[in-house]
Amino acid sequence: MKFVRYGKYIPDLAAEMSMEDLLQALSDYLLQSGYQQQFMDLYELPDEQTLEELKDAIEQALMRGEQFDEELREQLEQMEMNGELDELIEQLVERMQQQDYISVTPPHDPAKQSSVGGQIGSNQAQAKFEITDKSLDFLGFKTLRDLLGSLGKANFGRHDTRDQATGVEAGGASRPYEFGDTLNLDITATLSHAIRREGLGLPLNLEYSDLQVHQCEYQSSCATVLMLDCSHSMILYGEDRFTPAKKVALALTHLIRTQYPGDSLSLVLFHDSAEEMPVSQLARVKVGPYYTNTREGLRLAQRILQGQNKDMKQIIMITDGKPSALTLEDGRIYKNAFGLDPLVVSETLQEVSKCKRAGILINTFMLASDLGLIQFVQKVTEMCRGKAYFTTPYTLGQYLLMDYLGRKTKTIH
Fold first, then answer.
1. Beta bridge partners of 390
2. 69/62 Cα distance (integer angstroms)
3. Domain containing 141: what range?
4. Residue 101 domain-assigned?
5. Residue 41 vs residues 5, 44, 95, 234, 243: alpha-carbon distances, Å
6. What are phi and psi of 267, to 5 degrees?
7. Tens digit of each residue's pLDDT (9 = 90 or more) over 67-83
8. What are the residue ranges of helices labelled H in 230-363?
């Protein structure tokens, strides 16, 4: 007689664990901005992360176990007691690489051709990794979903303006049809106009002048430059302000790519000077020992927007510090971190005035509440008729996305 023996099913965690859940648990580590090294010499901060650091982060995420049920947490604890956790982490790293969530760069080793076995372990500890576009897209989607979850329903896919046009959606009173309009007839208004002209009777003759069409909001494309302050103050005073700003930038990028395909988004980092940074490289950006050269950031943003053929152009500036640096005509950087320097402020406001003349809107998201800084931001807002949002790292995403989606006119203080 043939017997079948059944045993308890033991899941293979390395094969069955969700990579999306793991990536979400690692999001703070993958998008860190230098906050953990805020008291170190930031000139010596590494530009890349090592595989050993990633493994340590995975171990911490597994031990927290927030994304696992009770049974899996118990299994993880048992694996740790049996010394099997390191093997699991190695397998998870390999899966992340195979599924294109990370790319691994082997270390440069002058003796890499040596056949000595001990070389491999020491080299592997120095291997670097980068997260891929697939990871960035996933993290942007998750951040966007979390942010929009607190906003309720949002009207995706278009930007409303003050102008009226004819279209499929009715958003205003009817008006007489003109050549070139979308033939979205207001039947009731058209028939009423004909009856008033001829009176009740059959057949009812319609003339060209009787045609009435619905009006809807004229919708336009928008070019946006996101200016991120990466001066040293963004990670000081016991609070990481830069990492939330990076997450919002990823969410905004995902929103534009999926819901506003006609829009464009560029990223500008401003510090002692300013530089354009591809959004795909955003996760690697860290703050540094820099001052705040707002004027240079505005200059670069204007040059970028001048090359965009869009009806609407805007600058979204996220900062926590007053302007404290200025690029002089000879290329030297003038710096003064003590108070609002009259020279720096006047030159910065001149650049704001140029943005106004070019029709560029500036919306400022402040992560600090210093009185002098508030006065400066209010001056910028008054000059360019933009909006100022005095917010925190925890509410930055809600305010920024609500502004981008709704184009509200209320200033939040």
1. 366
2. 12
3. 137-157+221-406
4. yes
5. 62, 6, 35, 15, 19
6. -120, 130
7. 666 777 777 777 777 88
8. 242-259, 294-306, 342-357
